[in-house]
């Protein structure tokens, strides 16, 4: 009965698997058809002609949507929905008869409700499956309509459809060689509950038996919304079942006959040949177990399974014996390797008993560092040599750390303290705990560190000395240059009398040479500040067009003298920048003047400005002599000209381009150069366009207008009210250098101002309090009380705190001047026009204030 039940179940399982295979074959054929529809929709949807059709190209209908074309695709319907979900066009065909299909109004109304087909189209959204329509079940595949597979512009959705009509079922039966019947799901609903496997799992099916010879497999087909829509039945003959029933009968008869014979023979054999030999085998195994010898063997006669078992046991014993020998050899080899490693490792190694902290073993490196042989170290406590202060406070055993790595002190056998870097790790060997302590002698490293510290101190001292030297030399050089340039310009302007043309030319040469020397000094100081990380950028928002205009005025004499054309081009997408305006002008001036210097007569220089993303791009292009590939690597090195021939022909220190690169990189920008010998050079640099909060910008602009610092805030022109000025305004000049003081006095007097002078801070404070001048020009570097102390006292004193102070100094400390309340800050030599404009602005502000006070008094 058991055998019959087992075989019956086996054949039933075979029959069930066969039904399942056929059901899923039919279902796979339907899925293949829906996949084909989706692939067709994707091909047509990613076609530019389809995209153009959705935008009004009506030739698409005649060229592509005729009956023959749709029938060749083996489809029944093609629908087009626009991006808003409205039905744009529909074409139908009966692909069996190759005739145009009439699309009913009922179908059109229904298809508009299947939102899943066409709403929210996207590149990665494709709907594939089945829908139930008033005209019967239909398989569909969809795709978004785009110009091409990668363009994300979506014009709508294309839907390819095919009816599950009798013709399709006939084709399906021919393909699968199965008897297939697709029915409405309604008759099955009463027999299914909510927990039915058919409803819960789309891969489930059920088997019904029409009779002894026919089985029917049924599965549900779900629509695109995941709702069961149709029932598919597969009818097949029960061949497996019938063959199984015949096989069961034959097997049962055979088993009864064989069992009877086998039972008799088995009883005789067990008694004679098995029980006695099993007893012998048991004795041999017990003997081997008691002796514990792997060299013993089991002896069993015969040629059967027991003999095979005995042989296997003997083979196992032989393998164990061989492995034991190999393990012993490997252990010996590993021990030798470990001893070789410990003997040759550079670090000192101590093996320490974790309980007693006594040394168990050492390597030669440890012997050398401690200064004692192994025999004198083994057995002694580790704290005698390493970390004696930590006895009883061991990081591992006492403080519970798993690993300890730190710098510690080792005391060698001579009592000398040696800095070491040590590492302690706990290990367990054969059930016993040890510490492996390794250490490295840091004596040489500590000596090297000390030397590095001393070298760094020396370098910093030298750097400070260099900065002090540059500051001193700047003052010592700029002071006479201030007089040379200032007095030369006074003579040239005719303020001290008429001069001949020859005298004018000579004095102009003196002024030009002085300004050239001043530019060289400024470049050296700028480079020194950059290298010392003392150069600061003063960011502001400014007009690119205004800077172009200012730079054009500066380089126009250079271009005219060389017979060159200089053109400026700015695209509309760049109007303002946020950067250090002074350094930006210096970058442009250096690049353009460099281009002018190396461009022959009748050549040209062009400057371009444009916006590239979040960067401003500037290009300076010339038609000059060009730069060779070998020289490009040295182009931005300070104090470097390209070759000796160029050095002889063209003047310069080689600092201009070096500063350009430094200033650009300080703005987080970049610069590159393209050049070909004989064809010119193109410098391209980019600066970031930083967007700031409008409120922050307004605050900055208001502050700049309030403190008056910087040339951008100076208003040119004399502002006076008629019949209100009785005498010239008084300016107090505070300057310790006689020549510089005289230059300012003459300049101011020639411009119509009265001048009072002071050569010391104490004298200046007295004069300021007594005379109450319109404004004060103040030098910083003065003996005794320097300019900062004078400015501080002026602003703290009630009677002088409102007097505007203009700093004229060799030092570039505008931020300090702003902090202490200076209204303007000019670096010597001071441009006369800039200084006069600043004074005129102050004079105008005073007049306006007096007018307001007069009007207020009249009202009162």
List the keywords.
about 850 residues, alpha+beta, six-stranded antiparallel beta sheet, five-stranded antiparallel beta sheet, 27 strands
Question: Can you offer a commentary on this structure?
Answer:
This protein is of the alpha+beta class and 860 residues long. A six-stranded antiparallel sheet has the order 3-2-1-6-5-4. The protein has a five-stranded antiparallel sheet with strand order 12-11-15-14-13. A five-stranded mixed sheet has the order 17-19-20-22-21, with helices on one face. It contains 25 helices and 27 strands. It is flat. Helix 1 (2-45) packs across helix 9 (239-291), helix 13 packs across helix 21 (738-750) and helix 22 (761-771) packs parallel to helix 23. Strand 8 and strand 9 form a beta hairpin. Residues 643-651 and 691-726 have low confidence and may be disordered. Helices cover 48% and strands 21% of the residues.
Distance between the termini: 130 Å
- Identify the strand order in the major beta sheet: 3-2-1-6-5-4
pLDDT averaged over residues: 79
Q: Roughly what fraction of the amino acids lie in strands?
A: 15-25%
Which shape, going by the Cα principal axes? Answer: flat
- Measured on Cα atoms, how large is the radius of gyration? 51 Å
By secondary-structure content and strand pairing, the structural class works out as: alpha+beta
Report the uncertain regions.
Answer: 643-651, 691-726
Q: What does the main sheet amount to?
A: 6 strands, antiparallel
Share in helix: 40-55%
Count the helices. How many? 25
Number of strands: 27
């Amino acid at each position: 009965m058991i055998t019959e039940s087992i075989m019956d179940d086996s054949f039933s399982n075979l029959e069930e698997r066969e039904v399942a295979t056929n059901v899923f074959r039919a279902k796979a054929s339907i899925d293949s058809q829906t996949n084909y529809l989706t692939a067709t929709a994707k091909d047509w949807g990613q076609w530019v002609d389809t995209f153009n059709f959705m935008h009004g190209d009506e030739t698409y209908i005649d060229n592509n949507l005729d009956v023959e074309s749709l029938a060749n695709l083996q489809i029944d319907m093609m629908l087009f929905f626009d991006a808003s979900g409205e039905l744009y066009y529909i074409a139908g065909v009966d692909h069996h008869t190759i005739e145009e299909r009439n699309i009913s109004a009922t179908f059109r109304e229904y298809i508009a409700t299947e939102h899943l087909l066409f709403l929210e189209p996207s590149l990665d959204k494709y709907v594939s499956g089945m829908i139930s329509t008033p005209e019967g079940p239909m398989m569909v595949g969809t795709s978004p309509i785009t110009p091409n597979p990668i363009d994300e512009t979506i014009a709508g959705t294309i839907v390819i459809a095919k009816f599950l009509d009798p013709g399709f079922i006939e084709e399906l039966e021919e393909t699968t060689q199965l008897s297939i019947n697709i029915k409405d799901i309604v008759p099955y609903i009463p027999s299914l509950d909510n927990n039915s496997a058919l409803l819960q799992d789309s891969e489930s099916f059920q088997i019904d038996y029409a009779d002894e010879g026919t089985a029917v497999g049924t599965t549900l087909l779900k629509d695109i919304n995941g709702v069961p829509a149709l029932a598919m039945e597969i009818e097949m003959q029960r061949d497996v079942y019938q063959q199984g029933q015949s096989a069961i009968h034959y097997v049962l008869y055979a088993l009864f006959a064989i069992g009877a014979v086998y039972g008799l023979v088995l009883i005789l054999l067990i008694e004679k040949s098995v029980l006695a030999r099993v007893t012998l085998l048991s004795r041999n195994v017990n003997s081997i177990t008691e002796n514990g010898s792997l060299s013993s063997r089991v002896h069993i006669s015969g040629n059967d399974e027991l003999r095979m078992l005995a042989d296997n046991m003997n083979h196992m014993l032989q393998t164990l014996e061989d492995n034991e020998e190999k393990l012993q050899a490997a252990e010996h080899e590993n021990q030798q390797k470990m001893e070789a490693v410990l003997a040759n490792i550079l670090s000192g190694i101590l093996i320490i008993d974790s309980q007693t902290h006594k040394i168990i073993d050492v390597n030669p490196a440890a012997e050398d560092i401690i200064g004692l042989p192994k025999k004198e170290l083994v057995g002694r406590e580790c704290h005698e040599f390493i970390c004696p202060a930590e006895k009883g406070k061991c990081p591992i055993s006492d403080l519970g750390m798993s690993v300890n790595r730190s710098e510690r002190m080792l005391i060698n056998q001579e009592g000398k303290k040696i800095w070491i870097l040590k590492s302690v790790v706990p290990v367990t060997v054969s059930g016993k705990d040890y510490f492996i302590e390794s250490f490295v002698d840091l004596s040489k490293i500590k000596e090297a560190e000390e030397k590095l510290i001393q070298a760094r101190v020396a370098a910093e001292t030298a750097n400070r000395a260099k900065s002090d030297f540059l500051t001193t030399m700047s003052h010592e050089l700029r002071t006479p240059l201030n007089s040379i340039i200032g007095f030369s310009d006074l003579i040239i302007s005719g303020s001290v009398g008429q001069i001949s043309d020859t005298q004018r030319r000579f004095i102009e040469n003196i002024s030009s040479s002085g300004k050239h020397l001043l530019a060289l000094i400024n470049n050296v100081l700028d480079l020194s500040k950059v290298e010392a990380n003392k150069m600061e950028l003063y960011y502001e928002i400014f007009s690119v067009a205004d800077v172009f205009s200012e730079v054009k005025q500066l380089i126009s004499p250079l271009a005219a003298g060389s017979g060159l054309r200089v053109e400026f081009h700015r695209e509309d997408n760049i109007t303002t920048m946020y950067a250090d305006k002074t350094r930006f002008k210096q970058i442009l001036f250096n690049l353009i003047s460099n281009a002018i210097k190396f461009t022959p007569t009748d050549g040209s220089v062009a400057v371009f400005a444009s916006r590239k993303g979040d960067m401003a791009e500037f290009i300076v292009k010339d038609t000059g002599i060009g730069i060779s590939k070998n020289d490009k690597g040295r182009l931005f090195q300070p104090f470097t000209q390209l070759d000796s021939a160029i050095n002889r022909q063209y003047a310069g220190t080689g600092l201009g381009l070096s500063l350009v690169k430094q200033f650009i990189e300080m703005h987080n920008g970049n610069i590159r150069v393209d050049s070909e010998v004989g064809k010119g050079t193109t410098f391209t640099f980019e600066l970031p366009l930083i967007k700031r909060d409008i409120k922050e910008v307004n605050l900055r602009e208001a502050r700049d207008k309030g403190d008056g610092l910087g040339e951008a805030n100076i208003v040119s022109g004399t502002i006076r009210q008629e019949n209100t000025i009785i005498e010239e305004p008084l300016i107090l000049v505070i300057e310790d250098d006689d020549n510089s003081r005289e230059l300012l006095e003459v300049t101011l007097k020639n411009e119509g101002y009265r001048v009072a002078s002071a050569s010391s801070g104490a004298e200046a404070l007295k004069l300021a309090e007594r005379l109450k001048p319109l404004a004060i020009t103040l030098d910083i570097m003065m003996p005794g009380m320097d300019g900062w102390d004078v400015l501080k006292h002026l602003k703290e004193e009630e009677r002088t705190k409102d007097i505007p102070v203009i700093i004229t100094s060799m030092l570039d400390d505008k931020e300090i001047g702003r902090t202490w309340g200076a209204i303007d800050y000019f670096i010597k030599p001071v441009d006369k026009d800039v200084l006069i404009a600043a004074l005129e602005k102050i004079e105008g502000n005073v007049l306006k204030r007096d007018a307001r006070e007069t009007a207020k008094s009249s009202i009162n």
